[in-house]
Write a structure and sequence with these properties.
There is one protein chain. The protein is mainly alpha-helical and 204 residues long. The protein has 2 domains: 107 residues; 47 residues, no CATH class. It has a two-stranded antiparallel ribbon. Helix 3 runs antiparallel to helix 4 and helix 5 crosses helix 8. It starts with a helix and ends in a 7-residue tail after the last strand. One of its GO terms (biological process) is tRNA methylation. One of its GO terms (molecular function) is tRNA (guanine) methyltransferase activity.
């Protein structure tokens, strides 16, 4: 990693919270993956103190991400988990009530928080095939491993061409991602993948 970038991460995190609240979910996710890869007690502790206030955020998605990520941080370091024992117990009770149970379970079991590892899966296959597939991006934008091997097989890359394990292949796009990318009402998807909107006044 780049220590010089890590040192300003929380500064940028704070700026985002003031300027673009909607981006906080992404920052919380990045913080989690940094905690997983660094395995540093001090950083994990900082994650807790910086993310905790967002557990009471006005926006539901931000609140959900903060609560779920905190739950996933506890197993990374037992000392930090013990330090915030009261908070950990309160969050567990909170996520076991009402609609939070179903939504939290969906997020916790998503590939991004279960199988994906920022270092182990740092490959062209992940970037051009797995992430587009799991994000439900149009299939014609996926680039298969065979094509990548044909184009880049002879290059001296500083990172892997393919993944060493099949963990990401076990997942499909999350249901809420699929729903978010379904065609709009009144939009016809042609075989070519292009969309053609119906214009009401053309039939008048």
């Amino acid at each position: 990693h780049s220590p010089q970038l890590l040192s300003i991460f929380w500064t940028i995190f704070g700026q985002a919270s003031e300027e673009r609240t909607g981006s906080i979910c992404s920052f919380i996710s990045v913080a989690y993956h940094l905690a997983v890869t660094l395995q540093d007690e001090s950083f994990i502790d900082s994650c807790v103190t910086e993310i905790l206030p967002w557990c009471m955020a006005q926006h539901f998605n931000v609140r959900l991400y903060a609560q779920v990520v905190l739950q996933k941080l506890w197993p990374l370091n037992s000392k930090v988990a013990d330090k915030y024992c009261a908070i950990r117990n309160s969050l567990t009770k909170s996520l076991n009530q009402g609609n939070a149970v179903r939504n939290a379970e969906k997020l916790k079991t998503d590939f991004y928080f279960t199988a994906f590892h920022a270092i182990y899966h740092f490959s062209l296959e992940t970037i051009f095939w797995e992430l587009p597939r799991l994000s439900n991006i149009s299939r014609d934008e996926w680039i298969s491993l065979s094509i990548l091997q044909e184009c880049c097989g002879n290059l001296n890359l500083h990172f892997s061409l393919s993944n060493e394990d099949n963990s990401l292949k076990q997942f499909t796009a999350a249901t809420w991602v699929v729903k978010a990318t379904e065609p709009e009402a009144g939009v016809e998807v042609e075989a070519s993948g292009m969309q053609k909107k119906f214009v009401p006044w053309k039939g008048m």
